[in-house]
């Protein structure tokens, strides 16, 4: 190759300086595609020019470089588009994971608060049933009081079961997300929230059993 060809290939290589301009493209997806096109075009031009020069001298150099740049640019853009799509998928997965962590944490905190309030409600209703049982033994008519307590217990059970169903739905979604997520700090956070939510679900299930037991105790105490 003569000096003229070396000058030409040097100019083509210098075109990679355009990558600096890519830094000004704020959209990461478009920047990745553009970088791919520039890299492919520059490489294609060099290779095409080399082949063209070998086949047709200086006239072949120009033709080969132009053709190589076109083909290389198109291929580079296609590859850049593929990488951009992959990046977008990563960003979407990360956003989904963090959203799931937030939702699981919120549901776990809600369950903790709800379970704490249920312990107080169960204690109060147990006291009411004991009072009704004592009044019944002394010959008092406890039908009205027993009816009120029974109504409260039924309402509580309905709400408790709805809460458990909600917690179960969130836990199932978290479990699916965990199975699809690669190892990492965010996955560990989500796993911790999932484990805590599962514990609160277990406590809620236990308190539902207790509430059903109170309903049976009330029935016996008011006979």
Structure notes:
It is a single chain. The chain is rod-shaped. Helices cover 91% and strands 0% of the residues. By secondary structure, it is mostly helical. The protein has helices at 3-14, 18-22, 28-137, 143-180, 185-221. It folds into two domains: 3-89, no CATH class; 92-221, no CATH class. Mean pLDDT is 77; it is low at 4-9 and 11-19. α1 (3-14) runs parallel beside α3.
Q: What can be said about the biggest beta sheet?
A: none
Mean pLDDT: 77
Helix content: over 70%
User: Domains counted in the coordinates: how many?
Assistant: 2
Question: Helical segment tally?
Answer: 5
Low-confidence runs of at least 5 consecutive residues: 4-9, 11-19
Q: Work out the strand percent.
A: under 5%
SSE pattern: HHHHH
Radius of gyration: 36 Å
Which structural class matches the secondary elements? mainly alpha
| Shape summary | rod-shaped
Number of strands: 0
Spatial separation of the terminal alpha carbons = 110 Å
List the defining traits of the structure above:
91% helix, 2 domains, mainly alpha, 5 helices, rod-shaped, 223 residues
Please render the helix and strand layout as text:
Elements lengths: L2 H12 L3 H5 L5 H110 L5 H38 L4 H37 L2
């Amino acid at each position: 190759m003569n000096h003229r060809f070396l000058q030409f290939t040097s100019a083509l290589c210098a075109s990679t300086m355009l990558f600096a301009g890519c830094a000004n493209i704020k959209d990461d997806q478009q920047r990745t595609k553009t970088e791919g096109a520039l890299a492919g075009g520059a490489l294609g031009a060099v290779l095409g020019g080399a082949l063209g020069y070998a086949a047709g001298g200086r006239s072949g150099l120009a033709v080969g470089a132009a053709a190589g740049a076109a083909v290389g640019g198109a291929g580079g853009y296609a590859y850049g588009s593929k990488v951009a799509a992959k990046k977008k998928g990563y960003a979407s997965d990360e956003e989904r994971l963090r959203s799931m962590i937030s939702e699981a944490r919120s549901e776990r905190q809600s369950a903790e608060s709800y379970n704490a309030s249920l312990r107080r409600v169960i204690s109060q209703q147990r006291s009411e049933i004991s009072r009704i049982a004592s009044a019944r033994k002394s010959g008092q008519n406890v039908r009205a009081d027993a009816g009120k307590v029974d109504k409260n217990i039924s309402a509580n059970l309905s709400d408790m079961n709805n809460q458990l169903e909600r917690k179960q739905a969130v836990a199932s979604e978290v479990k699916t997300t965990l199975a699809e997520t690669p190892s990492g700090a965010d996955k560990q956070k989500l796993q911790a929230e999932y484990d805590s939510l599962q514990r609160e679900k277990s406590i809620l299930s236990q308190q539902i059993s207790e509430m059903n037991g109170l309903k049976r105790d009330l029935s016996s105490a008011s006979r």
